[in-house]
Structure prediction request, 453 residues.
Amino acid sequence: MTVTPEKTTGASKRDILALCKEHGVSFLRLQFTDILGINKNFEVPESQFAKALEGDIRFDGSAIEGFVRIEESDMVLKPDLDTFRILPYDDEGGRVARLLCDIYNPDGSPFAGCPRQALKRQIARAAALKYDVMVGVEAEFYIFQLGADGKPTTRTHDSGGYFDLTPVDRAEQIRRVIVRDLVSMGFEVEGGHHEVAPGQHEIDFRYAGALETADNLATFKFVVRNVAYRHGFLATFMPQPIFGQAGSGMHTSHSLFRQGTNSFYDPKAQWELSGVALQYIGGLLKHARGFCAVTNPLVNSYKRLVRQGRMSYFSWAPVFNSYGSNNRTNSVRVPMGGGRCESRNADGAVNPYLAATLALAAGLEGVRLKLDPGEPNEDNLYMISDAERRDRRIEFLPQTLQEAITAFAADPLVEKTLGKDLRDEFIRYKTSEWEAYHLTVSPWEIERYSHLF
Prediction:
C-alpha cells in the first residue's frame, strides 16, 4: 500500500509519523466539531505526535458547546488516521497537518454527544441493511470585504451574477486558490463558479460515502474561510446575509448502493428512479419538518426559507415539503438522469454530521416501512393558491427557528437516532438562541416604531 499526504486510507501510526518527518510537519491539529458543527482543534507539537496518534490526548469538554458539564469535563481525542492531511500553506512557526477525531470518554467508551460518531452509528445501520450510503453536497457562500477595523461587513467586492467572470467577478483568483488548496488535500473538485448574487460563490466537489462527505464539508468550510481571510476578506456560509439577495443553500444528493449497484436507479421507471428511491424520499418528507432545526439551524436560516414574496422566488428557496422532478420549488428534487434525489432546504450553517445522520435515518425508515411519498409536484408552488396547496396536502417547512425546535422535539426519530442526551442538549442550546434573538431590540424596530408610538 502506498501512503501519500493526499491519501492515507489504511495508514498506520508509523506511516503518519513517517509522513510528518518527510514533509517537515511541526504541528498537528486534532480537529473535531461541536454540537453546532463549528470546527474546533487541539494542537500539539512534534514531541507529542506519537501520543496524539495513540489517542491519548485529553481536553476540557466542558468548554465546548454541547459536550459535558464541568464536573465531568475530561474528554479524549481519538484520531482517524485516514483523515491525515498536510495543510497547503505554512503558518508562522512551521508546517501544520491535521487529523479529524472522534470524541471518547476517559474510560474508553464512545462519547454519546460526538456528532461524527452519531453518523458512524447510522452508517452501520445502513450497512446492516446491506446498503452503502453515497452523499454529495453543493455549498454556497458569500465573500465580503472586511472593514478598516477588521470587522465583517456585507460589502461585496464584485458585481457579478450567475456564471459571470472577470472583471465583474473579482473573486475569481480567490476561488482558484481555494480549489488549489482543496486539491492538494485530496479533494476531487468538479468545478466552481460565481453564484446568483454579487459576492456569492459555489465550488462543487465529487460525491462520496456519507462519512467522507461530512468530513470533506467540514474541511471545505475551513479552507474557504481560511483562504478568504488570508486575502483580507471574510467568507461566510450564513444562510441569508443580505436582505433582498439570494440566500446560500447546501443542496445535498442521496443515493444507496448495494454491492456496487445504485439501488436508486431504475432505467424503466419514471425519472429512472426506483421504488427504493421513492420510499427513501417518503422518509425524507415525513421527517423534513422535524429535522429543520438541524438542516436550517439559525434564526437567520428562516430569512432564507421565507414563505412568500419575490425574494424566495428569486433564490428558489424550497419552503414547501414536497417532491418532484426538475422543479426547484420542491424541498426534494429528482435531478435529470435519475439515480439520486436532492434535498434542497438545508443551508451552509448545518452541522454536517448531524444533518447527514438524520437524513439517512429518515430515508432508511422510508425504505424499511415502504413509505409512499405521494403524488409528485410539477407546478411552481409559489404561484398556486393556499387553498389549492391545502387540497393537495402540501405542508410548509417551519417558518421560524422556534417552530423548527418544536417540530424537532416532537419527532420520535430524532431521539431514536441521536440519543436523548444529544437531542436534549441541541434543544437547550437552540432554545436559548431563539430566546436571545426574541429579546433583542433590533434597529428595524427602532426605525419603524419609535417615532410612531
Notes: Residues 210-230 form the longest helix (21 residues). DSSP finds 13 helices and 18 strands in the chain. The mean pLDDT is 89.
